[in-house]
């Protein structure tokens, strides 16, 4: 992450704030406003109550995420398939190299920036920490993010949602009556940012995939207090263990859907030690911002793209916007009713997130919601091109069934009258250079 920040800074893409900022709500407010205005990474050099600078919005755009893993931002869905395949027992060199720690410094948890994000959050939270742990039975490694509420220097409470791999490890360890050792990585190697967030298969080690993406072994060092290795380049490592058969109150917390999750019983992480690199930088992720939701949108889009392509022709691109529960599919219609098959296949391909599905032609920019809306408003007859599928669940955490039912929108041109829907073009529009005409603007 450090190298990537240096690259961003060198080319003038890093916003640097030297004025002191308060981690209690102020940092989140300034981050939100600056993200909205510029969508650039921000480095806060002076944060009240801590010696650590805070960087945020590092991975908050498709272009930066694509750059980090060395692929074309416009071809994410297709190239992602290779990513998932990278983990499948690729033969070859050891993806990890072992190094000694070179001058790590120890500190207390409360020496780190303790950032409070949303208005009603119960406490400061760590939002960018990747948990690294090993399956207590097989020893296979895993990386995943889990928000963690600061309680004291010795205790964090972490949201381990059902079915996530770390959650399964924790439950396995509990059955053995053992704590589960884990380390939280803050500012881990940039290639691991996306792999940690991706829903890779259970037996795939996300860090190994990150190494294969990087094309070189990741240097690992031993932890000080637990029997685990962590990437040596990680800025900050919090070592600890999940206590067996212990759940304590966590929340409320302002979450990615834009609401507060209420207080509830969650996992207890006993902190055993914190090690930091010299001049360590702390990574903060504003919950619900592109830096958090983009990884989810990208992996859901790629998943839909792969599964649809296996079943149907003419699938050109997929994105989820303006939120992960809306899938937009760009197709090249091959036969009457093709779009309808695509819509129905999408809810089979993505049972969790595709609550609303819109299918458009290849002359629509699926990354521009206004353009998608234009297609709906001009090419879709609500009485016959919109389908409501009743009584079908989607988002899993939904006891009140607020997300039940699906809406499918065919916004492609009527198949037998396609030529009537030719999009008008302004001749020369692509060649105009505004500076030639408005030199002073
Ligand atoms: C920034 C960020 C924060 C997240 N927070 C949580 C969380 O608090 N709890 C949770 O269970 N999953 C959270 N997730 C989702 C999981 O980390 C993600 O689904 C991951 O792929 C799970 O890894 P696994 O497939 O190895 O279980 C978060 C994801 C991101 C990108
Ligand atoms: Mn996993």
Automatic annotation (TrEMBL):
Sequence ranges assigned to domain 3-octaprenyl-4-hydroxybenzoate carboxy-lyase-like N-terminal in this UniProt record: 5-81
GO cellular component, one term: cytoplasm
MF (Gene Ontology): carboxy-lyase activity
InterPro entries: UbiD (IPR002830), UbiD-like_C (IPR049381), UbiD-like_N (IPR049383), UbiD_Rift_dom (IPR048304)
Domain 3-octaprenyl-4-hydroxybenzoate carboxy-lyase-like Rift-related intervals: 106-290
Boundaries of every 3-octaprenyl-4-hydroxybenzoate carboxy-lyase-like C-terminal domain copy: 297-411
Listed Pfam families: UbiD, UbiD_C, UbiD_N
Family: Belongs to the UbiD family.
PANTHER family for the chain: 3-OCTAPRENYL-4-HYDROXYBENZOATE CARBOXY-LYASE-RELATED (PTHR30108), 4-HYDROXYBENZOATE DECARBOXYLASE (PTHR30108:SF21)
Protein name: UbiD family decarboxylase
Species annotation: Chelatococcus asaccharovorans
């Amino acid at each position: 992450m450090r190298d990537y920040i240096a690259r961003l800074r060198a080319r003038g893409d890093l916003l640097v704030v030297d004025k002191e900022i308060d981690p209690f709500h102020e940092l989140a407010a300034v981050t939100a406003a600056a993200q909205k205005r510029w969508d650039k990474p921000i480095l806060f050099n002076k944060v009240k109550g801590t010696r650590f600078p805070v960087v945020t919005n590092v991975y908050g755009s498709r272009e930066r995420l694509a750059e980090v893993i060395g692929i074309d931002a416009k071809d994410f869905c297709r190239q992602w398939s290779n990513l998932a395949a990278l983990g499948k027992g690729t033969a070859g060199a050891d993806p990890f190299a072992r190094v000694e720690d070179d001058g790590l410094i120890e500190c207390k948890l409360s020496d780190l920036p303790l950032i409070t994000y949303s208005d009603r959050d119960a406490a400061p939270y760590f939002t960018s920490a990747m948990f690294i742990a090993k399956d207590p039975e097989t020893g296979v490694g895993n990386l995943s993010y889990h928000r963690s509420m600061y309680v004291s220097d010795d205790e964090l409470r972490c949201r381990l949602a059902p079915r996530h791999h770390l959650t399964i490890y924790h439950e396995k360890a509990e059955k053995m009556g053992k704590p589960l050792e884990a380390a939280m990585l803050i500012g881990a190697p940039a290639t691991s940012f996306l792999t940690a967030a991706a829903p890779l298969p259970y037996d795939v080690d996300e860090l190994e995939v990150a190494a294969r993406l990087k094309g070189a072994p990741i240097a690992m060092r031993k932890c000080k207090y637990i029997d685990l290795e962590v990437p040596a380049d990680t800025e900050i490592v919090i070592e600890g263990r999940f206590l067996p058969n212990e759940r304590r109150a966590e929340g409320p917390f302002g979450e990615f859907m834009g609401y507060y999750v209420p207080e509830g019983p969650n996992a207890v992480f006993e902190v055993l030690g914190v090690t930091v690199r010299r001049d360590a930088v702390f990574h903060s992720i504003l919950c619900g911002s592109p830096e958090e939701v983009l990884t989810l949108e990208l992996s859901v889009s790629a998943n839909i793209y792969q599964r649809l392509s296996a079943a149907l022709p003419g699938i050109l691109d997929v994105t989820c916007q303006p939120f992960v529960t809306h899938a937009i599919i760009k197709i090249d219609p091959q036969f009457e009713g093709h779009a309808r098959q695509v819509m129905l296949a999408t809810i089979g391909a993505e049972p969790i997130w595709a609550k609303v599905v819109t299918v458009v032609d290849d002359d629509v920019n699926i990354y521009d919601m206004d353009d998608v809306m234009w297609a709906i408003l001009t090419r879709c007859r609500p009485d016959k091109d919109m389908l409501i599928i009743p009584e079908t669940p989607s988002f899993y955490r939904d006891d009140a069934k607020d997300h039940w039912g699906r809406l499918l929108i065919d916004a492609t041109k009527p198949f037998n009258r396609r030529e009537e829907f030719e999009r008008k073009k302004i001749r020369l529009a692509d060649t105009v250079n505004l500076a030639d005409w408005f030199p002073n603007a």
